[in-house]
Amino acid sequence: MLKIHNLHAGVDDKSILKGIDLEIKPGEIHAIMGPNGSGKSTLASVIAGKEEYEVTKGEILFEGDDIGELSPDERAHKGVFLSFQYPVEIPGVSVTNFIKTAINETRKAQGLSEMPAKDMLKLLREKAELLDIDRKFLSRSLNEGFSGGEKKRNEIFQMAMLDPKLAILDETDSGLDIDALRIVANGVNKLKTDDNAVLVITHYQRLLDYIVPDFVHVLVNGKIVKSGTKELAHELEEKGYDWIKEEVNA
């Protein structure tokens, strides 16, 4: 589904990613861990097409197509979803209207007509129920006055409604207490199928107790320096990152 080869990228002439190789197949959950400043959020942003980052070398293939030149909305229409670490507040735009617009724009890009109102309503209700979201929540302005947990749950709700092929969760666990973390992780697990894939970016192993990855990759100084199974995340929790940095520098 996603194949990244020798990816170099940076911002304002500063090199951040220094040769990333990564392959994600349908049905898989991959986790990327690493110390602060190692390039984790940059990788998420570059896959999603955030325009302030410049790719200087390498390629990103999504379902076999090179998406390097596509805008963020074109990538989203192909099925790439990015859940933000710090979701933006949009006063005056309700959660429902935001999602309706996003779905219909994607359908338009795929040559489909708008989703009929009754189908949209049914889908909104189904997914709200699945994620244990109060209906009143849907009429509120997007993220305005939301708690950290509500903002993150809203991101997962958007993911449920848009049904992407690849969901990238950028530090979805930051600022969440254990209950909110469990609710968000539960939502991700319910949405997981054999046809979609998830890339989880996190500092902490605790999220991976709830969203269990097939593969864990450690990013240090813009490179994936180690990959393994979920046991690698437990090892990092126990020993920190210094031993990996020592291995890299040896």
Automatic annotation (TrEMBL):
<protein>
    <submittedName>
        <fullName>Fe-S cluster assembly ATPase SufC</fullName>
    </submittedName>
</protein>
<comment type="similarity">
    <text>Belongs to the ABC transporter superfamily. Ycf16 family.</text>
</comment>
<dbReference type="Pfam" id="PF00005">
    <property type="entry name" value="ABC_tran"/>
</dbReference>
<dbReference type="InterPro" id="IPR003439">
    <property type="entry name" value="ABC_transporter-like_ATP-bd"/>
</dbReference>
<dbReference type="InterPro" id="IPR010230">
    <property type="entry name" value="FeS-cluster_ATPase_SufC"/>
</dbReference>
<keyword id="KW-0547">Nucleotide-binding</keyword>
<dbReference type="InterPro" id="IPR003593">
    <property type="entry name" value="AAA+_ATPase"/>
</dbReference>
<dbReference type="InterPro" id="IPR027417">
    <property type="entry name" value="P-loop_NTPase"/>
</dbReference>
<feature type="domain" description="ABC transporter">
    <location>
        <begin position="2"/>
        <end position="246"/>
    </location>
</feature>
<keyword id="KW-0067">ATP-binding</keyword>
